[in-house]
TrEMBL record:
Any one GO molecular function term: acyltransferase activity, transferring groups other than amino-acyl groups
InterPro entries: Acyl_transf_3_dom (IPR002656), Glucan_succinyl_AcylTrfase (IPR050623)
Protein name: Acyltransferase 3 domain-containing protein
Source organism per UniProt: Syntrophobacter fumaroxidans (strain DSM 10017 / MPOB)
Family annotation (PANTHER family): BLR4337 PROTEIN (PTHR36927), BLR5718 PROTEIN (PTHR36927:SF4)
Keyword vocabulary terms for this entry: Membrane, Transmembrane, Transmembrane helix
Residue span, Acyltransferase domain: 35-397
Transmembrane segments: 41-65, 77-97, 117-137, 178-197, 217-234, 254-271, 283-302, 314-336, 348-370, 382-400
Length: 410
């Protein structure tokens, strides 16, 4: 796998480990931006922590394990994460898409994405998610069917819907957390189709053709436009309302404007050199704006400052869009300025990040079930699952990738 394909499905296996443990700074003109590798790893940590908290916090979504006690303040953690981290993943994933297409050609590009994203999707939908959904069905949804009957009648929905069935959807078949891969696959195919139609060559080198990075006014314009579109979408589709577009694309429309727009901007950012040319002061300024929006959201959520109840919905959508914008610009700049280097450990973590993303949910759920009867509070359980889940997910990814043929996909 090409070493500078920095989508979450990229492998760093083509990079030789460096000797010693001293960080090796690299100029930003180098093909590979280690800052994005590090940012990808940190975001993966955050995703694992987010899912570790799903059983212990106040969330409107579905999860495979339900703890009796809930920690109210995790709600702010969930909201902050959902405001930016998957959008930023889409942005990072799209950064090297144009270069990858130009190097491989359309057919090879689509084939590579189909294998890399499609194979894990099929495995999880057909083998992993049925087990996780069945655990939820028998433990928290009042189900009594044996697994084979559940699989045919409820998971795959063969026959009429059983009377009195409780749950987030029917049939139960779903992509789980791999909806992200499904979207990446669809977006990548759409990109390939557009590039096939628009045959003008693109320069895949990130250090050529640099253009001036968007200024504060342009970034503000994006944040405002994203807010307006998101408000319009959420008049019909609130957060945590999931649906299947065209009966197979699992999507949460509330966040779709953010995900799609940041993927598009990611395909532009590297070719234009924005990741290298955004001034430090501008990037850190927008990071502060994002942090300020997080703080403001917490103050309003927990009624620490007076705010009209009828305007809270608009406020939270606006704050969320400014978090997404500020953190995308700010974190890319922060990591470029201060963490654009690598060590053998970071190279390993970068190589294993995609696999850790793939396997972390069954590991987290197993931990949640394992400590279900431990006499501890929701906070302690959340911390325990997070602290154990992150290294276990990376270790599982690391050794899984050593199996024959697996590294081709993971």
């Amino acid at each position: 796998m090409d070493s500078n394909a920095l989508d979450i499905g990229a492998s760093s296996s083509g990079v030789k480990p460096l000797s010693g443990v001293i960080p090796v700074p690299l100029p930003v003109s180098q093909t590979r931006l280690w800052s994005l590798d590090r940012l990808k790893v940190v975001l993966t940590f955050l995703v694992i922590a987010h899912h570790a908290g799903q059983a212990y916090g106040s969330t409107g979504g579905f999860w495979f394990y339900e703890n009796a006690e809930r920690w109210l303040y995790l709600r702010q953690f969930f909201w902050m994460n959902a405001s930016f981290f998957m959008g930023l993943f889409f942005f990072i994933s799209a950064v090297f898409v144009p270069g990858s297409y130009e190097r491989k050609g359309g057919a090879a590009f689509v084939k590579d994405k189909a294998i890399r994203f499609g194979a894990p999707l099929l495995i999880f939908v057909l083998l992993v998610n049925p087990v996780l959904m069945y655990l939820s069905y028998i433990n928290f949804r009042g189900g009594a069917l044996p697994f084979t009957a559940y699989l045919t009648q409820i998971y795959f929905g063969m026959g009429p819907k059983p009377a009195g069935l409780r749950g987030p959807l029917w049939p139960d078949i779903n992509c789980g957390h791999l909806w992200f891969l499904e979207h990446l696959l669809v977006y990548s195919i759409l990109f390939a189709v557009l590039r096939f139609v628009w045959r003008r060559p693109m320069d895949p080198k990130p250090d050529r053709g640099k253009a001036e990075a968007p200024g504060d006014l342009a970034i503000l314009g994006y944040a405002v436009a994203l807010t307006l579109v998101s408000l319009l979408v959420r008049t019909r589709y609130p957060i945590d309302k999931w649906m299947f577009v065209l009966d197979f694309i699992q999507s949460e429309p509330a966040h779709l404007p953010q995900y799609l727009s940041l993927f598009i901007l990611g395909t532009v950012a590297m070719r234009k050199g924005w990741l290298q040319t955004t001034p430090r002061a501008r990037g850190l300024r927008w990071l502060c704006i994002g942090i300020g929006a997080v703080v403001a959201g917490g103050l309003v959520r927990f009624d620490l400052i007076p705010f009209p109840p009828e305007a809270k919905g608009i406020f939270f959508v606006t704050a969320e869009c400014f978090i997404a914008t500020g953190f995308t610009v700010g974190l890319c700049t922060l990591f470029r300025e201060f963490f654009n280097n690598t060590t053998p450990l970071w190279q390993v973590l970068g190589a294993d990040a995609y696999g850790a993303y793939l396997v972390h949910v069954p590991i987290v759920v197993a931990l949640q079930y394992a400590i279900g009867n431990v006499p501890a509070g929701a906070v302690q359980k959340f911390l325990l699952v997070t602290i154990a889940g992150i290294p276990l997910s990376y270790l599982a990814s690391h050794y899984l990738r050593k199996l024959p043929g697996v590294a081709r996909v993971v």
